[in-house]
Structure formats: C-alpha cells, structure tokens
Amino acid sequence: MAVELEYGEVSAVDHMTCRIRVRLDDRDGVESYWLNVPQRNTQGTQRRPLMPELNEQVAVLLNADGVGGVCLGGIYSTAEPPPVVDEDTDYVRFSDGTISTYDRAAGVMTLDCVGALLVKCGRNITVEAGEPVVVKAPSATLDIPQVTLNGDLQVNGDLGVKGNVSAAGAVMDAGGNSNHHSH
C-alpha cells in the first residue's frame, strides 16, 4: 500500500476520538477524511496530550487514494517559526500564556503558570534543595493539624499567637523582659 506525505491545515478536531480533518495544500484545499492522531500510551499508562488546533500546519501520511491516513504532527514554517531555537531548551507555551521550560545546559526548570497551580499527592511530598528556598507570596496559610520544625526559627516581624504558648526552656526577651520578672 503506497502512502504519500502531505501538508495542510487542521480544519476540524474530534476530541472524543482523537482524530482531525485536514485541508490539503497539494489537493487544492480538499478536506481529508478523519485522520487518527497517534498517542504515546493508550493502555495501562494512558496519556492524552493536547490535540492539534484549528488552522495548525500539520504533516500527514495518506493512502494513495487519500481516504485513510494518520497525522504525523504539527510543523513549523517561515510563517510560524519555532518559539525557541536553543538546542538545550525544552519549551511548551499553552494558548492561555502558561509556559513550561527546561534548560538542560543550565539545569533550570521553570513553570510560569498564569492560573492556579494544584499539586495533589496520596502519600508523602518531600522537597529537597541544595541551596536556600525562597517562597514569595502576599500571604500563606498552612492548614496542617501539627507542624514540627527541626532547627532554629527566626521571625523578622510581628508574631501573633491565638492560643497557649508552651516552652521547655527559658523565654528571653532581648528588650529586657524575661520569664524572671515579678508583678
């Protein structure tokens, strides 16, 4: 069975069946039949990446009669060049503006999410870093029944406590007050 490599623009997307139709450049804009979009995993481990978008340039393999075929994937062109040309950078920009990059030369992974970020885990989460960790936010809430801190705690600013404070050692105030004062 002979197959032909052709190019065109996505004209329809069926998200339920992971298929697309393509307006074929070499066939005067004739629209293909529904073409499968290959997936990396479909059993056991299942993966469903984003489908090609309407008007996206794609390469397809078609049967000689043009009826059956498969989409090979999107292609860049002079009209739509790659967003990054650095050979060491893996780059994903979603249509909402969220960007995920990995620069293997620098060893830096970045996620710039325009919306919310949710991390869920059914077991433990461990964060390890070889250098200091900085968290920047207008505020933070830890909704945790118990927190254990192994190490020193320094607070630069006011400390408000609602509830009792228990201490196993002396409580000292550098301002001159201590636990040895009398009323």
Structure, explained:
The chain has 183 residues and is an all-beta fold. It is built from no helices and ten strands. The strands form three sheets. It has a five-stranded antiparallel β-sheet with strand order 3-2-1-6-7, with no helix packed on it. It has a three-stranded antiparallel β-sheet with strand order 8-9-10, with no helix packed on it. A two-stranded antiparallel sheet has the order 4-5. A hairpin with a 5-residue loop joins strand 8 and strand 9. The radius of gyration is 28 Å and the shape is elongated. The N and C termini lie far apart (98 Å). The mean pLDDT is 89.
The helix/strand series, from N terminus to C terminus, equals EEEEEEEEEE
Strand content: 25-35%
Structural class: mainly beta
The level of helicity is under 10%
Number of alpha- plus pi-helical segments: 0
Q: Can you tell me the residue ranges where pLDDT is under 50 for at least 5 consecutive residues?
A: none
Q: Name the average pLDDT.
A: 89
Strand order of the largest sheet: 3-2-1-6-7
- Report the sheet with the most strands, covering strand number, pairing sense and barrel closure: 5 strands, antiparallel
Radius of gyration: 28 Å
Structure summary, number of beta strands? 10
Q: Distance between termini?
A: 98 Å
* Shape descriptor: elongated
Would you summarize the structure shown here?
By secondary structure, the protein is mostly beta strands. The chain is built from no helices and 10 strands.
